[in-house]
Specification:
mainly alpha; Na+/H+ antiporter like fold; 79% helix
């Protein structure tokens, strides 16, 4: 137990120091936390190991982070972005899927493996993007809302694609047409119930609780609700962070929302979120790394960045977003995070992909996680936005 306590203390100090250093260089604090995780992990000083305790805290951290993001989202603006977010999500899946599948033929000739590489590259994880947008004060802008909406849709559609691929390829074990139909039905039911709850439940809650003074009890029950939503989402195959985010959207209409925000920020920003950011670097393990691995990772990284920037950014232009806004949307969708790792794990366990694909995927996750805050910061910089306006 004492070792775990020491590791947590090291993570908190390292991420805070890293955040301060990043701010000195006018970069998002989250970038400093990510680099701090790499330095204290196996790649550099080996001070902290990625064990079950760190993994649990990291998972709680990302759930709380997305719950808070949902709570801070302007639901009115979110509703307005419905169609644009859907189209951005579709384009953000289609372009990386095609580019990823075709580029995979440079290294492999297995049809199903190459398609699955494309599927891995369709994944989007906005936990890093959310923190960066919050730091920049852009979370509730047109760009921020579209990124969040598209990421939620991306998660759901990505899961359906994986399920269909496993069933069609015959490598999904018990994933026959019957179980596939059940899974899709469960996902659709979850989406419909979530939408109904977000639209109608807050009115009832506010009517019942408007005369009651806010207290820590509300915070406790809210966190419990987020965990329950994350559990239900994961039970039907959707990422837990999607359930937590939707729960946050529901409570964003709560009469005592500000009180909840203050309590959650203390828990998330002060404790759990830094552990999650550091865990990305701590989890890095370059065992089995080779020149071929590096070439595959570089190719996947290029597709990961170009696919989202062209796909999501191009779709944003359809809805008359400016060049700078379109680029910001594309860049905001670049980070792959735990969603890509989960997808790759599914493929590895099903025997569709091998370790030659899995290690490059981990590298791509780490690299996209590190570069996304930097690219977002640059895309939102006044100098860059002014340059793009001059070119229009």
């Amino acid at each position: 137990m004492e070792k775990v306590l020491l590791q947590i203390a090291l993570i908190l100090v390292a991420t805070k120091v890293g955040g301060i250093a990043a701010r000195k260089f006018k970069m998002p604090e989250v970038l400093g936390a990510l680099i701090a995780g790499v330095l204290i992990g196996p790649v550099a000083f080996h001070l902290v190991a990625y064990d079950s305790n760190i993994k649990l805290l990291a998972n709680l951290g990302v759930i709380m982070l997305m719950f808070l993001a949902g709570l801070e989202t302007n639901l009115t603006e979110f509703k307005k972005a419905g169609l644009s977010a859907f189209v951005i999500a579709i384009a953000g899946i289609t372009v990386p899927l095609l580019l990823g599948t075709l580029s995979a033929y440079l290294f492999f000739q297995d049809f199903w493996q190459n398609i699955f590489i494309g599927v891995i590259l369709t994944a989007t994880s906005v936990s890093i993007t959310v923190e960066t947008l919050a730091e920049l004060g852009k979370l509730n802008t047109r760009v921020g809302i579209n990124i969040l909406g598209a990421a939620v849709i991306d998660d759901i559609l990505g899961l359906i694609i994986i399920s269909v691929l496993l069933a069609v390829s015959g490598k999904g074990g018990n994933s026959g047409s019957g179980s596939l139909a059940v899974m899709i039905t469960e996902i659709l039911a979850f989406c419909v119930i979530s939408i109904i709850a977000i639209l109608f439940l807050p009115k009832l809650l506010n009517k019942l609780l408007k005369d009651i003074q806010p207290s820590r009890t509300f915070l406790t029950f809210s966190i419990a609700a987020a965990m329950l939503a994350a559990f239900i989402a994961e039970s039907v195959g959707i990422a837990a962070i999607t359930g937590a985010y939707l729960c946050g959207l529901l409570l964003s209409q709560f009469v005592h929302k500000e009180t909840l925000e203050r309590g959650l920020k203390s828990i998330s920003s002060g404790f759990l979120a830094p552990i999650f950011f550091a865990s990305v670097g701590i989890e890095t393990n370059l065992e089995g790394f080779s020149l071929n691995t590096m070439l595959i990772a570089i190719c996947m990284l290029l597709v990961a960045v170009i696919g989202k920037v062209i796909g999501c950014g191009g779709a944003a232009r359809i809805f008359k977003m400016s060049r700078s806004e379109s680029l910001q949307v594309g860049v905001g969708m670049v980070s792959r995070g735990e969603v890509a790792i989960i997808t790759a794990n599914i493929g590895l366990q099903a025997g569709i992909i091998n370790n030659q694909v899995f290690l490059p995927t981990i590298l791509v996750v780490i690299l996209t996680t590190i570069i996304t805050p930097v690219l977002l910061k640059l895309s939102f910089s006044h100098r860059y936005e002014t340059l793009l306006r001059k070119e229009q």
